[in-house]
Design a protein that fits this description.
The complex is a heterotrimer of chains A (390), B (372) and C (556). Chain A is built from 15 helices and 10 strands. Chain A folds into 3 domains: 1-83, no CATH class; 93-134, no CATH class; 148-388, Rossmann fold (3-Layer(aba) Sandwich). Chain A is an alpha/beta fold. By secondary structure, chain B is mainly α. In chain B, 49% of the residues are buried. Chain B has helices at 11-32, 44-68, 77-96, 109-113, 129-153, 158-177, 203-229, 231-241, 243-248, 253-279, 289-302, 308-327, 331-346, 350-371, and strands spanning 189-190, 194-195, 198-199, 281-282. Chain B starts with 10 loop residues before the first helix and ends with a helix. Chain B has one domain (5-371). Chain C has 3 domains: 94-132; 154-239; 264-555, no CATH class. Chain C is built from 23 helices and 7 strands. The radius of gyration of chain C is 33 Å and the shape is flat. Classes of the chains: A alpha/beta (390), B mainly alpha (372), C alpha+beta (556).
């Protein structure tokens, strides 16, 4: 493994001038280690966000110091990586290439299509290429030893010229309950789309823990590594019963043949029952989801999220359409989940946010405007302006 | 009983299978044991006609599996049917041996006619039934797998998918019309003599094929039920209703689709293989996009996402076709066209849906009576 | 004798021609001189014309040649029509007085006569009162040569060019010397080129190598097929090394030019096919792209347009030239009316269910086909081509673009431009785009979405009808013609990107040209299969076509 893997490192120290989603900036720079999830990966990304490292982290993570320590740092992390994603590395670089070419060609004219084809073909014929489908997602290990579970750095997304996400940097610690607020069009939902793989950013990086590059994974793979999402508009499976909805969401081997042969065990049944009582839909367990009220569908979605048992829960507007009591129950539920799980809540309802939030991030025009406790944020003149200025 | 598990709660399917079993027992008796003059006698022609309907029914079940439960409206299932048919046809051609018009021991007549000197490579092995049987499963399966792998991976869905399935069968039709392809061009494969040593013209062989079709339909139906009642079936329906949501809870939608799609294509291939010896010919017309769309209408008329509805639709429409083309050949296209329109506009759940509402209504009436 | 009198007059070419003809005439007319000479001539031509009534081909031939000579000498305009009529057998004489006449049918098996010399109308007579002046093969070839020589002297360059073309490949020294003479004074470039070609091909047989080389120089890269044939023949027989090399070089030059011509022709055929695809697909692009309706009956709406053309021609017999101008709006209205009817009775129940619209409209397509079969005919019908649609535009001697394809290409572009204008610049277009983007919002803002839906579908259908008019000029018109186009049309729309008219244009032209490019080595059917396979693969790569709609809305 090492031969191909080490080469770019040894041969090109500058390669380490990459986007290290280190916690220096957001987490009072106590970790002097580069702590870079991307460390030693490849230069493939370096072209696009070259300016990124400065913007995001400040220049101390930059070149010379990094290069000097690179050998030790990498050796320790190398060991860890050898254990899990060892042989995948050489292939990963190229797979990133592949992804990138996919992305660029999506936004370009016909000419690039052919280049895209050509590039793909080149990729396919490379001898050291390891195909994505040969890498089991299960082998990817969530590493939160440095605190944050989610690193978003230098993200940019635009739709037809409209910048939905603009140089967004966001870090969420493991076990945290974080609320994200912001006016309409601030990019909250788009941010979630990026994390869950629905939208690919034009540039930037998104890491889950230190080792899992979310931009390389598909939606189901992201779900499998432990990120669950509740959508803004509740989307449950209308033609399935409430029970079946939960059964489908349940953490299990979700490959085709195991699914074909799956039979519910007693423990699984108990787990579904438990969630049914948490979300208060025990009575409706056998009814079709289509007959549920809007609030009940919200609960069902939360229930599905619980069944997935993810490390990170992304909850988009959970209390829309709920009564006051239901909101309280939701607040209780989300607070109780924090700690063991990490919860990111996007919500418009300020009372609700105040009731649950320890830490609040305000998004505005696609980037972070302010971050801190609810009180700090509320007193921030910029935030006031954004909200009042509307 | 584990084996009957998939049929639990499927009243329509149980009735359908019971009727199928009844026909499978009665028809051979009425054909072989009841003398010809007797009004109860079932002619061999009718037996073959019924056998043909059953293969259509199996094809319709295959379409319903992907359309009703997975949301893929395939306008190209006729291609898999025809490929299975061609694989069988190639075996039957090789069985003719030197009894063809030109008497060539190795080459089928059309190759002699085209002045070919040797058997093309892809005809090798088709003299063996086991090999042909394998190809009946493999060829449609492989085509479906490759096509599906490409399409589902890049998330081609909905109308786009329907249109490229149609392009697929259209391209195959054009290809099979070419003499150079080596499948008999325009005329296709015909003049079959025997199957596994049984004379295809004999009544007993006809009965045997009829029974094989009935068995294939029953097994295919059972297998589809097994899939749709499994957790995978529930995932499939979830894919049909909210594809992206399924991805976010961690299922590989493309692989779910690919597996069920490929299985459906194999079923269609088997149906085609049983169809060919009964009608005695397979030609490129079977690939025509018209056929594929027509069979979607069988399913729509029967009622999608019920499986047994597909059987009802296939048998009814084809029976109607037989009757109409006999009596008013001109009116058939009006009737078929009218059915397309009426069913999609006024009867979206098809006959099965109609039966269900009727049953529910009568059920609620009885409850009311009981409470009164 | 008068015939000796004209030797000194006229141009050198005509004189030489005249002399050469004279020799032949003198020999052949010796036998008949006594029969001819005793008639008192009113003019040189008249006397010869009178001799045409003779039964002897020899005498007739001599007379014809004399007419040609006289015509050349005096510039008598009656000579060429006379000889031409004689050549094709349109010249008769009246039995009662041997008067030479042109005839035209006057109904009731009677014939209207015109005096061939005076142009005086002589009234109607029965067929029995006339006798045709017959000619034999020998006379025919002599006549052709005479006519050509006469026309070479014509003041009209078009006629001279035609005459020159007819002489290409001729090795008659008499003809060649006449051509040479004309070439010296010819000032029209194409005519001069053609004349030079005649001379050069003849010169290839010259005994001196130098003359042959000069001739080859003229033929270098010449696109007339006769030049290629002559050079090829020379290559087979030539012994001189230098001449052989020059011949080869000249042939290569011709081949290169032919290749270029071939490429242009392929491109033209491709664009022509592309324009047909665009015409067929563009209506679909509206119903599919703007409304999300999969109209499988689109092909049948094209068919209805083609049948409208047929019916229009039936209703206005004898006005074929104008029929298409009437047929275009008629087809638009008829197909459009069908479209509105389909939308109001079926489609409107199915909005938001594209797959259901596919099935329902397919049913409609079956009904429409059968309707045409039962009301008109199950057979193909004959649609006339107006004369301005036939013929071709001769770009160079090896390349001609047929007018019908050229007009249809233009027509497709015009229809495209008009459609674009309608969608971009009219109130209807604005409403259509509004409804297609957000139905509820458009309705809230006072757009009658039901009316807009009907009109949009009608517009798409009407354009299908217009496409049908164009197709009726290219292909057979029958109940099944629509089916042939429906899959191709869908491919074009999907390839171009749904909801993008420019995409449809580019996709249609690309597919047309690609198809024609592949045809030479793959054959028509295989080319089509390859195009289909390409599109299937392409859709995997770019599921939303060449020019996809993007943005938040498109992502769902």
């Amino acid at each position: 493994m090492s031969a191909t893997n080490e080469l770019p490192l040894d041969g090109e120290p500058a390669a380490n001038k990459k986007q290290t989603p280190s916690s220096e900036q957001s987490l009072s720079s106590e970790s002097t280690q580069t702590s870079a999830p991307t460390q030693g990966r490849e230069q493939a990304l370096s072209a696009a966000p070259a300016s990124n490292s400065e913007l995001a982290i400040g220049s101390e993570t930059g070149t010379s110091a990094d290069a000097a320590t690179s050998s030790e740092v990498s050796s320790s992390r190398e060991a860890g990586r050898q254990a899990n994603s060892a042989s995948s590395d050489s292939g990963r670089g190229s797979s990133r290439d592949l992804l990138r070419s996919d992305r660029t060609f999506d936004f370009s004219g016909p000419k690039q299509v052919w280049q895209g084809f050509g590039q793909d073909f080149k990729e396919l014929t490379r001898r050291d290429r390891q195909f994505d489908f040969m890498i089991r997602v299960k082998d990817l290990e969530l590493d939160v030893s440095h605190g944050p579970i989610l690193y978003l750095e230098g993200l940019n997304v635009s739709f037809d010229g409209f910048k939905a996400i603009n140089e967004l940097n966001l870090y969420v610690n493991a076990g945290e309950l974080r609320c994200v607020i912001g006016p309409n069009g601030a990019g909250k939902t788009t941010m979630m789309d990026i994390i869950t793989g629905k939208t690919r950013p034009d540039s930037g990086s998104a890491f889950f823990g230190q080792k899992i590059d979310l931009l390389k994974l598909t939606e189901p793979e992201i779900a499998e590594v432990g990120i669950g999402r509740k959508f803004q508009k509740p989307t449950v499976f209308e033609h399935h019963s409430v029970f079946e909805n939960l059964e489908l969401a349940m953490a299990a081997d979700k490959r085709v043949f195991p699914t074909l042969l799956a039979r519910l065990t007693g423990a699984e049944r108990d787990r579904i029952d438990e969630v049914l009582s948490i979300i208060g839909l025990r009575e409706q367990a056998q009814r079709e989801a289509s007959v549920l009220s809007h609030g009940q569908k919200q609960w069902l979605e939360i229930g599905m999220l619980l069944m997935q048992d993810p490390h990170l829960l992304l909850v988009d507007e959970p209390v829309a359409g709920m009564t006051h009591q239901e909101m309280e129950r939701t607040a209780e539920l989300l607070t109780s989940l924090a700690g063991k799980h990490t919860v990111v809540v996007v919500e418009h309802d300020m009372d609700f946010v105040r009731s649950i939030a320890k830490r609040v991030t305000v998004l505005h025009q696609g980037s972070v405007l302010a971050e801190g406790s609810m009180d700090e944020v509320q007193n921030d003149p910029r935030v006031v302006e954004v909200y009042l200025g509307e | 009983m584990g084996l009957l598990q998939p049929l639990k709660g499927d009243t329509g399917g149980q009735i359908m299978l019971a009727v199928l079993a009844l026909i499978a027992i009665l028809v051979p008796i009425l054909n072989l044991l009841v003398p010809e003059g007797n009004p109860l006698h079932v002619s061999t022609f009718t037996v073959t006609l019924l056998g043909k309907y059953l293969t259509y029914a199996l094809l319709a079940v295959a379409v319903d599996l992907v359309w009703g439960y997975l949301g893929i409206l395939s306008l190209g299932h006729g291609a898999f049917f025809a490929l299975g048919g061609y694989a069988m046809g190639m075996y039957l051609m090789r069985q003719i041996g030197d009894r063809g018009v030109y008497g060539d021991p190795l080459l089928p007549d059309f190759m002699v006619f085209l002045d070919w000197q040797q058997l093309p490579w892809f005809w090798q092995g088709f003299d063996q039934f086991w090999y042909a049987a394998l190809m009946i499963l493999l060829v449609p399966g492989l085509l479906a797998f490759v096509f599906g792998w490409l399409a589902f991976r890049s998330r081609v869905t909905g109308v786009y998918l329907s249109i490229i399935t149609q392009a697929l069968t259209y391209a195959l039709m054009l290809a099979f019309f070419r003499n150079e392809m080596g499948f008999g061009g325009n005329n296709g494969l015909t003049d079959f003599k025997d199957l596994l040593g049984f004379d295809l013209q004999a009544d007993s062989t006809r009965i045997g094929l009829f029974l094989a079709s009935a068995l294939a339909l029953a097994l295919g139906y059972w297998a589809c039920r097994w899939i749709v009642t499994s957790k995978l079936g529930r995932v499939a329906v979830a894919v049909r209703d909210a594809e992206s949501r399924v991805r976010f809870i961690g299922y590989r939608v493309d692989r779910v689709k690919l597996a069920i799609w490929t299985f459906s294509a194999v079923l269609a291939g088997v149906a085609g293989a049983l169809y060919v010896p009964q009608v005695g010919i397979i030609n490129p017309g079977e690939f025509s996009p018209l056929n594929s769309i027509e069979l979607v209408v069988w399913v729509a008329i029967g009622g999608r996402a019920t499986l047994y509805g597909a059987v009802i639709g296939a048998v009814l429409v084809n029976y109607g076709k037989t009757v109409f083309t006999g009596v008013f050949p001109e009116a058939w296209l009006f009737v078929l066209g009218g059915l397309f329109v009426l069913v999609t506009v006024f009867l979206p759940a098809g006959i099965a849906g109609l039966l269900k509402t009727l049953r529910r209504r009568s059920g609620s009436e009885t409850i009311q009576e009981a409470s009164a | 004798m008068s015939r000796f009198g004209f030797g000194g007059s006229g141009s050198v070419g005509v004189m030489m021609l005249g002399l050469s003809l004279l020799l032949v005439t003198a020999a052949s007319s010796a036998a008949s001189s006594q029969g001819a000479d005793h008639l008192a001539p009113s003019s040189a031509i008249d006397i010869r014309v009178a001799q045409l009534t003779d039964t002897s081909f020899k005498i007739k031939e001599a007379a014809a040649q004399a007419i040609a000579e006289t015509g050349a000498e005096t510039g008598d305009p009656r000579a060429i029509p006379l000889l031409k009529a004689l050549l094709v057998g349109d010249l008769y004489y009246r039995k009662v007085d041997d008067r030479i006449v042109y005839v035209a049918p006057a109904g009731n098996s009677s014939w209207a006569l015109t005096d061939a010399l005076s142009g005086e109308a002589l009234g109607d007579v029965g067929r029995r009162d006339l006798r045709k002046i017959t000619v034999n093969n020998r006379m025919r070839s002599a006549l052709r040569a005479s006519i050509a020589a006469l026309t070479l002297a014509s003041p009209d360059p078009q006629l001279r060019l035609k005459a020159a073309r007819e002489m290409i490949g001729s090795d008659d020294p008499v003809v060649i010397s006449a051509v040479r003479a004309q070439l010296a004074v010819e000032d029209d470039k194409p005519v001069a080129d053609a004349l030079a070609l005649v001379v050069a091909i003849a010169d290839l047989k010259q005994p001196e190598a130098d003359s042959r080389l000069t001739a080859i120089e003229v033929l270098h890269g010449n696109l007339y097929p006769e030049a290629h044939n002559a050079l090829n023949a020379l290559l087979g027989s030539e012994e001189d090394v230098a001449v052989r090399a020059a011949t080869k070089a000249a042939l290569d030059a011709i081949d290169r030019k032919r290749q270029l011509n071939g490429s242009i022709e392929t491109l033209f055929f491709g664009l022509s096919l592309g324009s047909v695809l665009v015409l067929a697909a563009i209506g679909l692009a509206i119903t599919f792209g703007v409304m999300g309706v999969i109209n499988m009956a689109h092909g049948e709406l094209i068919m209805i347009g083609a049948y409208t053309t047929y019916l229009v021609q039936q209703l206005m017999p004898g006005l074929t030239e104008w029929s298409l101008l009437v047929a275009v709006p008629a087809a638009f209205l008829v197909s459009g009316a069908f479209g509105v009817a389909i939308e109001r009775t079926v489609i409107r129940f199915l909005y938001g269910r594209p797959l259901e619209t596919l099935l329902a409209t397919f049913g409609i397509s079956l009904i429409l086909q059968q309707l045409v079969r039962t009301t008109i005919s199950a057979q193909n019908v004959v649609v006339q081509n107006p004369s301005w649609m036939s013929g071709s535009l001769q770009l160079n001697p090896g390349l001609a673009l047929t007018y019908n394809r050229l007009y249809i290409l233009l027509f497709a572009l015009i229809v495209f431009a008009l459609l674009l204008l309608v969608l971009k610049r009219t109130a209807l277009g604005l409403q259509v785009r509004a409804v297609s983007q957000n139905r509820a919002m458009a309705r809230a803002m006072g757009v009658h979405s039901a009316r807009v839906d009907a009109l949009t579908f009608g517009l798409g259908a009407g354009i299908a009808g217009v496409a049908g008019v164009a197709l009726s000029q290219l292909t057979n018109v029958g109940p099944n013609m629509g089916q042939a186009y429906i899959i191709d049309s869908f491919m074009v729309v999907v390839f171009g990107g749904v909801g993008n008219l420019w995409g449809t244009l580019v996709a249609g032209m690309t597919l047309g040209v690609a198809n024609k490019l592949m045809e030479p080595w793959a054959g028509a059917v295989l080319a089509k299969i390859l195009v289909l396979v390409f599109i299937i693969l392409f859709i995997q790569k770019r599921p939303r076509g060449l020019f996809p709609q993007r943005g938040r809305a498109a992502a769902d």
